[in-house]
Design goal:
single chain; about 230 residues; four-stranded antiparallel β-sheet; 10 strands; binds adenosine-5'-triphosphate; binds magnesium ion; AAA+_ATPase; ABC_transporter-like_CS; transport; ATP hydrolysis activity; nucleotide-binding
Length: about 230
């Protein structure tokens, strides 16, 4: 489903040139539930952003669902991302002036341009699935952190992506809420065969995944299948 070959990422900030990823190759199959772990600064977010079409590698190729994404221009890439990929951020990134309902609906208007009836049915289904139907008319400042993350999950899933990338999705949540969010993502993975790739420090996520990839200094030092 995803193949990455010989990825390299160099960040240039003024005079300083930092080679964060040197030569990273990786294959991810459909429906996998994967954690990317490693020390702070090891390149987890960088890898996730490249695989998730939010940033481009300096060198190397990425293919997602048979489409080579390296070489696509920005517009094409944004379109491809909208059709195929969901992204969940540590800080939720909800739009403050929109209601819960409108936040979830937003990608359908902006990216997929679906008719209103279809939008409504998808948003309501997801609101139900993440347990936020009763809060649908509130703005994000009127709900808790865990609830915001549930809205962010619904927003990431509303376009029916085959792949969801999540960067530290539980970092801002208390233990109990983090557990609920993980269970929710597992349920979605089971029911929709969605592929999930998490960058995380959270042991609670790590103990739940099928596969654990460890990065150190931008290199994969371990790639383990977990038996459960
Ligand atoms: N936009 C950027 N410009 C310049 N350097 C960057 C940029 N983003 C990341 N870096 C550098 O690249 C390295 C890897 O960063 P990255 O954010 O991928 O690490 P990480 O594993 O996600 O860390 P953390 O666990 O703290 O989130 C770090 O040294 C960081 O300073
Ligand atoms: Mg990070």
């Amino acid at each position: 489903m995803i193949t990455a070959h010989h990825l390299k990422k160099v960040y240039q900030t003024g005079e300083i040139r930092q080679e964060v990823i040197k030569d990273l190759s990786l294959e991810i199959s459909e429906g996998e539930f994967i954690s990317l772990v490693g020390p702070s600064g090891s390149g987890k977010s960088t890898v996730l952003n490249m695989l998730g079409c939010l940033d481009t590698p300096t060198k190397g190729d990425i293919t997602i669902n048979g489409s080579p994404i390296t070489g696509m221009n920005r517009t094409k890439m944004a379109h491809f991302r909208g059709e195929n990929i969901g992204f969940i951020f540590q800080s939720f990134n909800l739009i403050p002036v929109l209601s819960v309902y409108e936040n979830i609906e937003y990608p359908l208007i902006m990216i997929q341009n679906l008719p209103e009836e279809e939008r409504k049915s998808r948003v309501l289904t997801l609101l139900e699935e993440v347990g936020m139907l009763d809060h649908k008319d509130k703005t994000p400042d009127k709900i808790s952190g865990g609830q915001m993350q549930r809205v962010a999950i619904a927003r990431a899933l509303v376009t029916n992506p085959k792949i969801v990338f999540a960067d530290e999705p539980t970092a801002n949540l208390d233990t109990k809420t983090a557990h609920m969010i993980i269970e929710l993502m597992k349920k979605i993975q089971r029911e929709h065969q969605t592929t999930f790739v998490f960058a995380t420090h959270d042991e609670k996520i790590v103990s739940n995944v099928d596969r654990l990839i460890t990065l150190v200094d931008g290199e994969i030092v371990a790639d383990q299948r977990m038996n459960k």
